[in-house]
Specification:
It is a single chain. Strand 2 and strand 3 (120-121) form a beta hairpin. This protein has one domain (8-146): Up-down Bundle (Four Helix Bundle (Hemerythrin (Met), subunit A)). A three-stranded antiparallel β-sheet has the order 1-2-3. The protein has helices at residues 8-35, 49-58, 68-89, 123-133, 138-147; strands at 92-95, 108-111, 120-121. The chain is built from five helices and three strands, in the order αααβββαα. With 165 residues, it is mostly helical. The mean pLDDT is 91.
Length: 165
Amino acid sequence: MDRINYNQEEEDDKLQIFLFNMIEEEISFIKQARQQGYQLDEEHPLTSLTELERYVLEKGINFQGSSDEAMHHRSLCWYYLGEVVRENYGGYWKFSMSEDNTMHWGLYVIDGFTRIQGLEFEPLGSLKRFIRKRNPGAFLREIESLVNPKPVDFSEFPDEPEFVE
């Protein structure tokens, strides 16, 4: 399947407009969520991820609805999730067109948040996985696995036999 060819400058402009709008929108989102008993916070602490998960589950956030309101709620949730990563670990929002990591091609991601060069956090995908699996603690585990990856121990696996012609 061929990748869509994007104009990087146009997409960066769209991203800047999106981020500008989300800053104001998120303030209202957090205020409204707090009034409903969800402990979301403008400082985006890691501890608020369990509250975001609770919000997503209890409010029935999903990817079935195509109304503007449904898409808006999803956007607020994955934007909040991205901001948790950005504010706790650094990095910046970008429109992904990485030739090395095409998995996130054409999506908004957080880059530069970990010591691993080229590793991107894609909050929309993280939200989708959480909604599908409904696994408490998934947001924090995913973020921690990206920020502090554990080396894989392959010593228990047998060596492949050498191929002899």
